[in-house]
Amino acid sequence: MQFLVIGKDGKDEKAMERRMAVREAHLKLGDEMEASGERWYGCVMLNNDGKMIGSMAVLDFPSEKELKKYLKLEPYVVGKVWKTIEVYKCNVKRPWKFNRPQSFFKEREKLSK
Hints:
Blueprint: E1 2-9, H1 15-36, E2 39-46, E3 52-60, H2 64-73, H3 75-78, E4 82-90, H4 102-111
Antiparallel strand pairs: 1-3, 1-4, 2-3
């Protein structure tokens, strides 16, 4: 079962400090979940100034129960980075289309400059 998770950071003066304190743990868990197939895609959300303000992930778990287990361990939840969390069941059409070699994305990055 696929889920879209949108976590929006707090807006208080300590929000970025909390994010940076647990960011490495969040990225490590994301890499582990990607290797296991539980995380298909994720990104940081930015405001107009390029400041990190939240996160988005497409996840795949056997059930909502497994998703809830993940959320209890997610460093941005435990570290009180995400003030709000939205979860939607979703169905990604042809998810394998995201499995492209790194060179593909490097070429696209060159084109956008």
